[in-house]
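Task 17 of the worksheet. Students: predict the tertiary structure of the chain below and write it out as C-alpha cells. Keep your answer in the requested format; marks are given for formatting as well as content.
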Amino acid sequence: MFDTNTYDDPFVLDPKIRARWAFMETSSAAAVLRSVCPAEWADITHVLSTFQLDPKRWLQAGGNRGDIAKEIDQMFSDRGWRETRVDLSTQGILLSKKLEVIERLPAVHQEGYLVDNFKGRVALDVEWNAKDGNLDRDLSAYRAWHEAGVISAAVLITQDRIKLKQLAERLWFDYQETLPEELRNPKLPIDLKTSTTTNLEKAELRVRRGVMGTCPLLVVAATPDTWNQQPYSPD
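Model answer:
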C-alpha cells in the first residue's frame, strides 16, 4: 500500500472541495482518477462541491443512514452512475510450446456484490453509518476488481464520526434551547455514540493494514465543514 496525498495538489482537486471534506488515499488515487478517469472524476468533484450536510435530514430519527446515503447516491445516479453487481470469472488455459490449446480448465466464478455506484472504470460506495463489516467487503472487492483489470480506482464516501458527533450535539443543544423546558429532551434523535459503524476512522484502520494492495483508493469523509451552516429544525 502506498499512502499518498495527491488530493492536496490544487491541480488535482479544487482547494474549496479539499477544505469541505476529509480525505485519505492509497496509490495516488485522486491523481489517478483525474488523469485516467477524467469524466468520472468530474462527476465526483461535482458531487463533493455540491452536497451539503443538512441537519434536518441528518438528524432525522430512523433515517440517518438512508436519507444521507440515498441523497448522495441520487446525485451520482443523476450523472449516469448505476448500482451494479460485479462478478469475476477466471479460466486457466493450457498451451503447448507452439501456443496450441491443450486444455481449458473449468472457470472459477467469484460472486460479487451490488456496489452503490459504478461508471466507466470506477467503483464508488457511500457507507454512511452502516455496519463497519461492510468495509471489509468493499475493500476486498475493490482489490480483486483492480487486480482483475475491471476498475482503475475506487472511492469510498463516509463520515468523520467523532467530529460530526460533536457538531450534532451542539446543533441539538441549540434546538432544545428554543423549546419550552417541559418539552426538552437532551438525547439525540439518532445514535452517534456507537463506534461499530462505517466511518473514516474504521476505514483508515483497515486501509493501513495494507488490504488494498496496489489498488488506488480514495476515502472521502464528511466533516463539520460539509454542513450547510443551518440550525436543526424538525420541520
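Marker's comment: The mean pLDDT is 90. The chain has eight helices and eleven strands.
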